[in-house]
Structure formats: C-alpha cells, structure tokens
# Entry
Amino acid sequence: MPANQLTDRFGRTVNYVRLSVTDRCDFRCVYCMAEEMVFLPRSQILSLEEIARVARNFVDLGTEKIRLTGGEPLVRKGVLDLVREIGSYGLRDFAMTTNGSQLPQMADELRRGGLHRLNISLDSLDADKFHRITRTGKLSQVLDGIEAAREAGFRGIKLNTVVMKGRNDVEVPELIEFARKKQLDITFIEEMPLGEISEHDRGLALCTSAEVRDIIRQRHELIPATEDSGGPARYYRMPDSPVRVGFISPHSHNFCDTCNRVRVTVEGRLLLCLGNEHSMDLREVLREFPGDDEKLRQAIISAMDLKPERHHFSSEGEVQILRFMNMTGG
# Structure
C-alpha cells in the first residue's frame, strides 16, 4: 500500500473513502428521501469505469478502506463488475452499505468478488412498521438477505438502525436480542438532518444515543470497547456476548476531531464533510482529462484543504443540508 498523501489542514489523515454508485433505491425510507423522488439523469452520474478510476487513484494516494454506498448500491446494473474490480486493489477493508433486499440473489457473488464486509440496514422487526418506515420494503426480504450473507461466508456483517422516537425506539430491546441471537454487531444511529422532509418532525423524533444506551442498560450491561473501528461509531460490549453495540451520534457526540473520511457522490462531487457543502467536482476532471490520472490525483490532494474542522448539525430538526442522504451515500 503506498504512503498516504491525504492530510487536511487540521492534521487528520484521510484513509477512508465512501463511494456512492447510485442515487436510486428500491426503498423510500422516511429519514433518507422524499416519497416522490426525482433521480439524476444518466449523463450526470459517473460510469462504473469512472467510479473504478476514482477508487484506484484514491488507493494510489494511500487509501486503505473503501465503502460502496447508494441509494442502494445493489440496484445499479453492473455493480458486481465494479466490486470485482475494486476487490482486486488489495484494500485493507472493502465494505458495502445495503438495505439487504438484493442479498438473497447477490451475496455469494459479492463475497467471491472480494467484498469483505456488509452493513445492512434494519430499522424494525415488525413487518408493518418496517413497511411504514421504508414505504416500499419487505422485512422478509431483508431477513432472507441477512441469512444469505451469513451463508455466503461474510464474517463482517453489521446491522444499522436509525432510531426515531415514536417510530421504532420501543424496538431497541428486540433488535438487541436479534443481534445477540444472530451474533451480529449492531449500530444505532441518530437521524441526520439531510434533505427537506414532511413525513415527520426530526426535532421531535430525535432519539439520542444516550437514550438508546439507557434503554439497553435496563437489560444488559454495556462496557466501552477499547478497539477503534476507524469510523464514527463508538462501540460497547456486553459481558455475556461477543456482539458489539455501536452508536453514531452526530448530534449528541461530535466525532469530527478523528474524522478520516471523505465521500464521492454518484455525480462525482468529492464531499469533504457529510454535514457541509465543501466539495470538489471530480466529474469535470475525469471527463476533461480522461487519460490523465495525475490531474485527478492532484485534484484530490488539493481538495483536502477544503475539509472543514467540524459539522454543525442541529438537534432541533432544522435542515442545514438540502441534499438527501441518497445523494450522499450512507
């Protein structure tokens, strides 16, 4: 792996890139997008070859970890070819965030293609509630997807739950028991104020990580884990289980001082922070200089100076960023 050449103005080394491969999704989760979405035309999104080129040049600059995101990455035609390509780059960690709906058909090929880990969204274990949160999703499909991933031999499977008061906060104990039974790590996430929504009031729905921990501690002791995941989650362990319980807390515990991540949207914007609009247009560089990787690497290096010290998410439900989560990637 080459020496890392990506350091921002605050001395943070960037070695982790999240690449969005599509803004489209077969679900319409209430915290992620509007019910009626207008998606990007094909001419505005990066081709799979362009995404692979971005990934390869980040690796050349010292990136050790890549995560493919969406929308839902597995609805992008040809995504398995992209997985196989990036899977050949020798990454320390190669992961994907998915809603799990396509895993019954694709888990085996993803594993053979070189993908190391999966983060699977699971916001409810009640079929009706799951459908209301996702608007179009079927719980049985996702549960089958989780089993398919286990049977395919994935050792790194983690469940992600966005917790919302009055929606699924009462299910936290049941989700913990499900994770313990399946021996899968689980992370609870505070809802982020990305995109204008009318379906619910984010300020009223916010369930903080501290509140979720209090719910869990009614049944299980939580001991802070010593290992560093290299991501935004803070992990805890239970004395009687190997399962780790993580918390991502953009509102209640700012994790910006250790941020080692950048994101590339499917339209080629290099976002230096999830909670800010600081970005560089890599699509322009890719298409103006199709054979010049040095130009692309220099653009990536210079963009590090745009990375802000921190985000300023509000816990009152106000939207600072108008783009939806499906535009950014998870």
